[in-house]
Specification:
Layout lengths: L1 H17 L3 H12 L12 H16 L3 E2 L6 E6 L17 E10 L6 E7 L22 H18 L7 E7 L7 H8 L8 E7 L10 E5 L7 H9 L4 E5 L8 H5 L5 E5 L18 H18 L13 H5 L9 E3 L8 E6 L4 H4 L7 E5 L2 E2 L3 H8 L7 E8 L3 E8 L1
Parallel strand pairs: 4-5, 4-6, 6-9, 7-8
Antiparallel strand pairs: 1-3, 2-3, 3-5, 7-9, 10-11, 11-12, 12-13, 12-14, 14-15
Helix pairs in contact: 2-4, 2-8, 4-8, 6-8
The chain binds zinc ion.
């Protein structure tokens, strides 16, 4: 009996060992996707096509059902806009074609979880690069071979468990050019959008540090997220939660369709958008931990109803509205009354030229009422250089005056 038992155990162990090792798989996938052969996976290039072929091969190996428009592929066409930060001028008359890769696990459920990661990157860095040297291949190992390798392993894990949802895996292209692939998908969905339960985005998950800091965006997009994260991440990560569903990656395209989202991100680093974002710098153990966390969240929510969606106040745009004009004043940040109190007036700037004095409180700019500092900053974004407007101020706390300002 004992020998038989031992044999059985040996037998089982062999089976376990014949399963692909997740660390090795992640390392292999990141190394290939971030290799020079793929020339930085720029949308619409040969490198993008090679990466697409590799990912489709993985989806096929895992037995995912093709859910693009042509097998796993969903081709899209977008005319580029010229980006003021770009070194080269784009030809805006010709559309660039890119391709999303879409695979499905069909559990015959009524709702589907979308798990996505973009696989495109900056090519030779002529657009979006933060590198000032000569053109060189931007390998994008963390951004975002790490996310793509992770969704492949999530597909392997979720194939055989948690059957109360279907799973749609999407490797997006065109993300770096402005969320082209995810934007296209939500306009040309290959499953009914209303059946999507929630969307999980992995973009830059390859640099988990010793402090275990993991940023999670979109925690305000459903009332259940915080509890689900508490139940699964505590003690394993130092989570930094951001409520907003608006942010610079593909989850935003889904959030804007009223779908709850979470985006996982291990944070900025010196190699971001530079040729040095290379495979050997990726923390594979950290990626495994994040994959296990996402698996745990999905498991935690398996069997619950379709998640409720909540709109978030969009922290990013709240923080930094863009404006190109100035009144030329120093605001009083400590002022607690209504309006924007002026603590100082700069020489020869619009406010001084209009007769505005230190101590005045701005209460309207044009038609816009100014109650808070944010109202003031937002109102500035409505004007451009040369514009004229009427600014109402309160002087000495009693006199209301209207002054003409030219920016
Ligand atoms: Zn990215």
């Amino acid at each position: 009996m004992k020998t038989l038992l031992a044999l059985l155990i040996v037998g089982c162990t062999t089976v376990v060992f014949s399963q692909p090792n997740i660390n090795n798989e992640l390392k292999k996938d990141v190394s290939f996707l971030a290799s020079d052969v793929l020339e930085g996976r720029n949308t619409g290039t040969k490198g993008e096509l090679l990466a697409a072929g590799y990912i489709m091969g993985k989806f096929y190996e895992l037995g995912l059902i093709p859910k693009g428009e042509n097998g796993y592929l969903q081709e899209f066409f977008v005319k580029p806009k010229n980006n003021p930060h770009s070194r080269l001028k784009a030809d805006t008359s010709v559309a660039i074609s890119g391709r999303n890769i879409i695979g499905f696990i069909d559990n015959k459920a009524a709702k589907t979880i979308v798990i996505g990661a973009h696989y495109d990157h900056l090519g030779f860095g002529d657009e979006g690069s933060l590198y000032s040297g000569n053109d060189s291949i931007h390998n994008g190992a963390d951004d975002n071979a790490s996310g793509v390798a992770s969704i492949i392993q999530l597909a392997r894990i979720l194939k055989d468990k948690n059957k109360s949802n279907n799973y749609l895996f999407i490797a997006f292209s065109g993300e770096e050019k402005g969320l082209w692939g995810s934007g296209w998908f939500v306009k040309h969905p290959t499953i009914e959008l209303s059946t999507i339960n929630y969307m999980i985005n992995l973009d830059m998950v390859g640099r988990l540090g010793a402090d275990l800091k993991l940023l999670v965006y979109g925690t305000g997009t459903s009332p259940v997220w915080n509890a689900a994260l508490d139940a699964t991440a505590s003690g394993k990560f130092h989570l930094i939660r951001k409520e907003s569903g608006v942010g610079p990656s593909d989850h935003m395209s889904f959030y804007l369709q009223d779908i709850p989202v979470l985006h996982f991100f291990t944070g900025q680093h010196d190699d971001y958008h530079k040729p040095t974002d290379d495979a050997e710098k990726v923390n594979v153990d950290g990626m495994v931990a994040i994959i296990q966390l996402i698996d745990a969240i999905i498991t935690n929510l398996d069997g619950s109803d379709k998640l409720a969606f909540t709109k978030t106040k969009d922290e990013e745009s709240e923080k930094a509205p863009k404006y190109s004009v100035t009144l030329g004043v120093i605001p009083d940040y400590m002022f607690e009354g209504e309006g924007m109190r002026i603590d100082g007036v700069k020489e020869n700037q619009p406010a001084q030229l209009a007769g505005i004095l230190k101590g005045d409180v701005v209460i309207t700019m044009g038609e816009i009422p100014i109650k808070t500092m944010m109202d003031y900053v937002k109102s500035l974004s409505q004007f451009k250089k040369g514009d004229r407007t009427i600014v109402t101020i309160l002087r000495n706390n009693k006199e209301k005056m209207a002054v003409k300002v030219q920016f």
